[in-house]
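User: Is it possible to get a 3D structure for a protein together with its bound compound? The compound here is glyoxylic acid. I've pasted both below.
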Amino acid sequence: MKRTAASGTTVTATPATVTALIDEFAALSEPRSGPGVTRLAYTPLERRAHDVFTERMRAAGLRVWTDAAGNTIAERQGTVAGLPAIGTGSHLDSVPNAGTFDGVAGVVAAMEVARLFTENAVTHRHPLRFVVFAAEEGARFGQACTGSRIAAGLTTAADLDRFTDAEGTTLREAMRGSGIDPDRVDEATWMRAEWAAFVELHIEQGSVLDSSGTGLGVVDVISGSTRFRVDLHGRAAHSGGTPMELRIDALTAAAEIVLIAEELASDDEHDGTRVTVGRLDVEPNSITTIPGDCRLYVDVRDVDPARQRATADEVLARARTVADRRGVGFRSDMLADASPVALPQLVRDAMAAACDQLDRRYRILPSGASHDSQMISRVCPVGMLFVPSLNHGVSHSPDELSTAEDITSGIEVLAATLLSLDTGLQTG
Ligand code: GLV
Ligand code: MN
Ligand code: MN
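Assistant: Yes, that's possible. Here is the predicted structure of the complex:
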């Protein structure tokens, strides 16, 4: 039994229960979608995963509701009326061909904390809210963290037609198709007065914790991300009939841009910057036709906001130069832009103290990935607790791996953190 100094309350999580829940969510995957889990943002399958959460939390005696953005929230009452909530949770949507831990680990952690607190009759002054955010992954619509952005007031109903998936479905249409009324999303905005703090457990999605053998991670800063699309317009023509010097090939221009972006992000000034061209759409995508059109999707990540925006501008400027030199038409569109967020010392200290109390090793590290907590930091102080990712830290891949023991350890630290925030926060 583990003891939290702040409250004297004991909770012990079990790896087998964690594994069973992770497996239950892993089974909710698009059939015939290839390896790994595919449960995209704002699909009926994502809603089904939220329903599993709802059923489990109701069974644990919590009040559960789904807000107008499709975020699902379960509340465990506090003992002092009128105090703001302390929250924890993550997301249940995935990228295509994902692993089974990204987002799910944090939701399972929230579910386990709720269950353990109920089983052990743990009381707390503040209400505790266990949250599943909708549509965290940017894989479908380009913008990450849509559910939490709506909660934070960063995305509104007016934005929903700006985003389309690969099939041309808009975010508005996808929401409607999964039973969410897009005209009402602004009702999902979280009121600052209702929230005291939020803590998200997540897998690291990198290899720092595993390779250094330091156990858990306390995040100090979450990287920002600037995403844009570049449309290159050349001339589709016969691959046999057109001599090399007479071509306007959109794909060779794109290839040059991909390599320039890689080179830029790899120089000394950009130590820590990450630039990725993760998607290329080629038209007509036929072996015997010179590619007439090519669309690149570029993602620039950094913990330094000025460098993040300067790098995005530089990639765009160099891409335009390539296009001009090759006589290729050029157009760019901004898809999404989120700033890096430094996480407050208050919540970091609570997590570090919880690790110390439970005798768990931890290190401070930045998050390379985006997270819902980044958006929720607009509403209340947030913290992030990382669990080691094995297999070289791969994520957004079926090879993603974390151990149930590490997640269990994270759940116990999360529980202790929530209880220490409950007693330590000056909220009433
Ligand atoms: C979220 O998974 C991200 O792309 O950072
Ligand atoms: Mn995630
Ligand atoms: Mn992800």
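The mean pLDDT is 95. The chain has two domains: 2-223+340-424, 225-338.
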